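Appendix B. Raw example, untouched.
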Amino acid sequence: MIDALRALGARIEDDGRGALPMTVHGTGGLDGGTVEIDASSSSQFVSALLLSAPRFNQGVEVRHVGSRLPSMPHIRMTVDMLRAVGARVDEPEHGGEPDVWRVAPSALRGRDLVVEPDLSNAQPFLAAALVTGGRVTVRDWPARTTQPG
């Protein structure tokens, strides 16, 4: 992620570690452009770049260059949320280039949104009830979800 942010113009100090702790120096804006990232270990890398992409002066093109992404449904959730607040996102599933997302620069509309909980965090509790024959209630479970779990 540090290399990806640097490729988009961010100035980051990490004492050459390529890891936390790090300091990101803000300048009020970044040009953006194309960035390649191997997100095969976590789709969160793609989601993080997509969430910041509309605010880059030229937008961002995110290219995943690794093996299979572990969770496309989570990336789809990110794209859906971005579109809900006015972002323009081209994605592979809608006729775009495989493993490439393009986000145009745009002002996002402020609004109240309900962010779906990470349902995978409930799995241990559901499994415990299943194994013991007990019961568990998970409050605020969404009626509809795009999550694979």
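End of appendix B.
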